[in-house]
């Protein structure tokens, strides 16, 4: 266990710059999305009637509050605190990763636990880092799916044996045959989206209320 801890610590420190880039990219994605919504809202303010205009002004202030709240995560000290948490957690989670199966296709990685999708990471949002641990690769990335933990836990960290990676066709075919699993996955996504939107609105309201 001591050797694993030392190797994980080495990997994280060695690839800290690349991990930071993924961390920033994750939040920048949501900031760009919010800025696009703000642009639409601003156009609506100028083209709407009096009552609707005031509602849009309030919405615009809420969006500004959410943007300011997200910007705090881009501060160096916030990333450093997050990185320190990962340094403590990842060695403890290493053993659990051995029970997670990894599959891939041309676009994404699929991490499966008990034959159910644990997380899907698009390759464009992920990076593979050769590990000091023999035969293992450290994969770091973020998901496009909304999740209640996207703000505090933006990145996923997986160690996997590159010789054990499989193609995902068999998983996709099994999933298509399992209507119950598809329904559960859709329900989970809707729940996560609702929680995330609620949290963003709550944070925006908290910021607006400060003024």
Helix-strand string: HHHHEEEEEEEHH
* DSSP strand content: 15-25%
Given the helix and strand composition, which structural class is it?
A: alpha+beta
- Spatial sequence of strands, sheet with the most strands: 3-2-1-7
Question: Overall pLDDT, averaged?
Answer: 80
| Strand tally | 7
Q: Span between N and C termini?
A: 51 Å
- Radius of gyration (CA) equals 20 Å
- Characterize the biggest β-sheet: 4 strands, mixed
Contiguous low-pLDDT stretches (5 residues minimum) are: 205-211
Helix proportion: 55-70%
Helices, by number, come to 6
Q: What gross morphology would you assign?
A: elongated
Layout of strands and helices, then pairs:
Elements: H1 2-14, H2 16-47, H3 50-71, H4 76-97, E1 101-104, E2 108-113, E3 116-122, E4 126-130, E5 136-141, E6 156-161, E7 166-167, H5 169-177, H6 179-209
Overview of this protein structure:
This protein is α+β, with helices and mostly antiparallel strands and 211 residues long. The strands form 2 sheets. A 4-stranded mixed beta sheet has the order 3-2-1-7, with helices on one face. The protein has helices spanning 2-14, 16-47, 50-71, 76-97, 169-177, 179-209, and strands at 101-104, 108-113, 116-122, 126-130, 136-141, 156-161, 166-167. Strand 1 and strand 2 form a beta hairpin. The protein has 6 helices and 7 strands; from the N terminus they run ααααβββββββαα. Helix 1 (2-14) crosses helix 4 (76-97), helix 2 (16-47) runs antiparallel to helix 3 and helix 3 (50-71) packs across helix 6 (179-209). It starts with a helix and ends with a helix. Residues 205-211 have low confidence and may be disordered. 61% of the residues lie in helices and 17% in strands.
């Amino acid at each position: 266990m001591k050797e694993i801890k030392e190797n994980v610590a080495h990997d994280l420190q060695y690839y800290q710059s690349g991990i930071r880039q993924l961390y920033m990219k994750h939040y920048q994605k949501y900031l760009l999305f919010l800025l696009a919504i703000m642009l639409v809202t601003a156009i609506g303010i100028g083209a709407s009637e009096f009552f609707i205009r005031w509602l849009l002004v309030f919405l615009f202030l809420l969006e500004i509050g959410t943007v300011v709240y997200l910007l705090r995560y881009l501060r160096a000290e916030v990333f450093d605190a997050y990185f320190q948490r990962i340094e403590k957690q990842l060695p403890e989670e290493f053993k659990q990763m051995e029970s997670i199966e990894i599959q891939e296709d041309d676009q994404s990685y699929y991490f499966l636990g008990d034959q159910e999708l644990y997380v899907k990471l698009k390759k464009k949002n992920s990076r593979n880092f050769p590990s000091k641990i023999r035969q293992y690769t450290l994969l770091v990335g973020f998901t496009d799916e909304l999740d209640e933990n996207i703000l505090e836990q933006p990145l996923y960290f997986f160690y996997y044996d590159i010789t054990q990676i499989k193609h995902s066709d068999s998983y996709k075919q099994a999933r298509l045959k399992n209507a119950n699993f598809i329904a559960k996955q859709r329900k989970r996504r809707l729940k996560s989206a609702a929680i995330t939107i609620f949290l963003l609105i709550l944070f925006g309201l908290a910021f607006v209320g400060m003024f």
